[in-house]
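note to self: dont lose this again. the chain is below, predicted strucutre after it. 80 aa total, dont forget to put it in the shared folder this time
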Amino acid sequence: MDVTATELKNRLGRYLDTAESVPVIVKKSGRAKSVIISHRMYERFLEIEDAYWAQKAREAEEGGYLGETESKRLLSVKDV
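---
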């Protein structure tokens, strides 16, 4: 559902209720500016993000580590 910022301001309660079931896209000057989602959906997104980074960490561990010297060489970092 799309709503203008002015409409959101005038009927905030309505759109907070709507966001419980569908995301509400807030537009300002005709462009999408923000999205209102339910707290439940927000928590789910956090769970998905945590799972994603946990998987990336597992993949990194399985692939091994470069170590400090090799990492600095690849990044062209001098000793600090």
